[in-house]
Each structure stands twice: as C-alpha cells, then as structure tokens.
Amino acid sequence: MDNQSIIHSVIFKLKHEQGSIEEVRFIEDGRSILSSIPVVQNFRVYQQVSPKNDFDFGFSMEFANENDYEAYNVHPLHEKFVNERWIVEVDSFLEIDYRNKD
Amino acid sequence: MDNQSIIHSVIFKLKHEQGSIEEVRFIEDGRSILSSIPVVQNFRVYQQVSPKNDFDFGFSMEFANENDYEAYNVHPLHEKFVNERWIVEVDSFLEIDYRNKD
Lengths: 102, 102
What we know:
By secondary structure, chain A is an alpha+beta fold. Chain A has helices spanning about 20-35, 65-75, 75-90; strands at about 5-15, 40-50, 55-65, 90-100. Chain A has one domain: Alpha-Beta Plaits. A four-stranded antiparallel β-sheet of chain A has the order 2-3-1-4. In chain A, about 20% of the residues are buried. Chains A and B meet through strand 1, strand 2 and strand 4 of A and strand 1, strand 2 and strand 4 of B.
C-alpha cells in the first residue's frame, strides 16, 4: 500500500437473522458483485466479533487512488447493489477510509 | 491471516489540535510502545479520512489467536499506555475486531 492508496471499509449489521440463508446470500452476493468491479483490490469479508460495538460484518477493499475510489462509487454495479440490496437489507453501518501513515 | 487470527483496530479522535506536536507525540508513542509488545503483528497507523465519521486516526494490529489478544490486553506496556495516555488524550474511539470470513 503506497501513500496514494485508500483502504475503504464498512462495518455493518444486517436486518436478517444471524445464520439465516438471507444473511449468507447478502454476504456472498456482496463479495461477488463488489469484488468484480475492476478498480477494487484486495476485497475481504470479515466477521466483526468485538462486543464493544454493534456490528457483525465488515467489507474491506483497497483503491490505488482517489480516482479509482470515485470510479467505484459511481460504478453501476455498486449503485445497483446499494439501491437494491444495501438500503433494503442493512440495519446500520459505519464507513471508514484509511490512508497509510507509516 | 488464518481462521484463528484476529485483526484488532481502534479508530479514534484526539483531544489535541490537528497538526500539533502533542498529536504527533501521541501517534508515535502509540506506534513504538504498542508495536513493541511481542504478540502484536503488523502494527499499522492510518489516517481516517472519510467525512462520514468523526474519527481522525486508526491503529491496527493482528494477533495469531485469542490467547495472544488476551496477552496484549493485560500486558503492562498496554495497560500503562491506556491508563497514562489513552484515557487522558483521546476524545472518542471505537474498537473493531475482525476474523477472516474468506
């Protein structure tokens, strides 16, 4: 990761029951759809296990620079996923963007 | 990262002015003290740049397993840093713990 690049992550809680088919479907669709967007690098799915916050999952990805991040934001696959799935199935979330400070 | 390992991160906002000597000192002391604890792997410092939350920095580290995480929590260097610096100099924070779901 160089100084231009950005680690974008979102931690979230779904409306679905834990361990439900709907939960698995959301996670796997998110993984396959979002990671297929060409500017997305190192897409990861995490379980959020700290009892100190209310979120259950994390999606994390890297962009080479701000232009790639913006291309992701306006990419039709991303917009469709947000409008048709995220808004419908996600209960709460927090977005975090990191730049390297090392 | 295997299935045992945990990525522990904390995003935070300092009481210090942005760009102040006190800010630099906190970040660099945090980096050197916490990364020196033997169980801590891949310690990273990030700037948090998303306008969608109120935090300015992130510390991130990996533990090989729960035992190493617990060893960190109770390590004297960690406890001293929390009691003498974190509680005094940090305005707000959120802890996140990730396990791999890939």
